[in-house]
Amino acid sequence: MDDYGPAFALVCVGSGGGPLESDLSGYLLKPYKEEWDAGIIALEAGSGQGTLHRLLQQEPDLFKTQRSATQTYSASEIYTFVRCFLITHAHLDHISSLVISTGSFGGPRKRVYGHKEMLEDLEGIYNWRAWPNLASYDENDEDFKLLYSPLVPNGKYHTVFPDISVQIVPINHGTTDVGPYSSSAFFIRSDSHPSKREFLFFGDVEPDSITSATPKIIDVWRKAAPMIPNTLSTIFIECSWPSGRPDDMLHGHLSPEHLRDELVVLATEIYHSRRSSSGGGSRPKRKRQKRNPSVSADELRGLLTGVRIYIIHCKEQSTQVEGPPTRELIVGQVRALVQTAGLGAEILSAEQGMYITF
Ligand SMILES: [Zn+2]
Ligand SMILES: [Zn+2]
Questions:
Q1: Which of 231, 246, 249, 305 is deepest in the core (most CB within 10 A)?
Q2: What order of strands is seen across the sheet that includes strand 179-190?
Q3: Where are the alpha helices (DSSP H) in the chain?
Q4: Minimal CA–CA distance to 102: which of 133, 137, 128?
């Protein structure tokens, strides 16, 4: 990473992958240098206002500001500052607090960004039956609390917030009775940071090795590789299951072995990207392949040095009532596998109530 200091600050309202409704995907993001009351991006909205209310009782200083160390906010005030929601897919563990709280949101009308299918799924909820209709596509419908705002996967960044822009990339999240199901990865960029720093946030995702006919994570790694580690050094990615879960029981998610394999693919892309950029302009452009040739473990050694990988969306095993949370087990397993592979990435856990800067 460069020495310009952090570009983003994030509070983790919830980071679990179920079954506890009190700890579901929900992150509040702002530019590091701005105050919370200047505007917030809500990244996923599984857990929200209710969970935050409880967190603030334990830690009232969670949103303390640079301006005043004594400033505290209520959960509903914090959600008043939210300008937009960025949602990877419309599974309930990513949208339930958004739906429950929509009617009571204060502050200006909020945009909901995501792929077209996700917005259509939300329409199926705001349909006067499952829930009143509180959202529309019309900029002039001021009475509707939410403004549906499609993000098109066209390789471009879209400004979603002053000085923050987002590129959406579709990823696989399992197959259903009605066909393949798509989630999203977001490249989130600070346009005001001197190095235009960005980070990568994955929604729920299935390993490419399972959907080898239509791999999608490779598209994300290809975009990320040339930016690592100087422009992009922080990745949030799920690992829902502990080690040893059979492939036919993954239900569109990653396990530690699959995550390690995906990181090996990322390191391979970095290897090829650095080689082609240092090889000068005379080499003929490689024909676009779905996957670059693999390289030896020795050549991949240390290629993810400087990258911090936050593990999210671990599923707690409901049968396990005593002992450490399953999350600790999963993060430990990923860390050991990545260490053995010698990739050099730092494996961290994003936990409820954390304040993270990057
Ligand atoms: Zn999901
Ligand atoms: Zn989920």
A1: 231
A2: 158-161, 164-176, 179-190, 198-202, 232-238, 308-312, 346-349
A3: 49-58, 75-80, 92-101, 116-123, 217-224, 256-278, 297-300, 326-341
A4: 133
pLDDT of residue 2: 66
243: Cβ contacts below 8 Å, ≥ 6 apart: 255, 256, 257, 330, 333
DSSP labels for 281-296?
Answer: TTSPPPPP-SSPPP--
Summarize pLDDT for 295-308 with one digit per residue, the tens.
999 999 999 999 99
> What distance in angstroms lies between residue 347's CA and the mean position of ligand 2's atoms?
20
Report the 10 Å Cβ neighbour count for 231.
17
Contact 47, 13 (CB under 8 A): yes
pLDDT of residue 280: 52
Question: For residues 176 and 252, what is the distance between their CA atoms, to the nearest angstrom?
Answer: 10
Residues 6+ apart with CB under 8 A from 213: none
Q: What is the pTM of this model?
A: 0.95
Tell me, in angstroms, the distance from the centre of ligand 2 to residue 87's CA: 11
Cα of 88 from ligand 1 centre, angstroms: 9
Minimal CA–CA distance to 43: which of 7, 89, 101?
Answer: 89
Torsion 330-334-339-341 (CA) sign: positive
Strand ranges inside the chain, DSSP E: 8-17, 24-31, 40-45, 82-86, 110-114, 135-136, 146-150, 158-161, 164-176, 179-190, 198-202, 232-238, 308-312, 346-349, 355-357
Type of residue numbered 225: A
pLDDT-derived band of residue 283, with 50, 70 and 90 as boundaries?
A: very low
Question: What residue type is assigned to position 10 of the chain?
Answer: L
Q: Which residues contact 109 (CB under 8 A, 6 or more apart)?
A: 142, 144, 145, 146, 147
Residue 70 has pLDDT above 90, yes or no: no
Ligand 1 center–CA 44 separation, angstroms: 11
For 307-320, what is the mean pLDDT?
A: 88
pLDDT of 66 above 90 = no
Ligand 1 centroid from CA 103, angstroms: 24
Radius of gyration of the chain (CA): 20
What pLDDT is stored for residue 322 in this prediction? 73
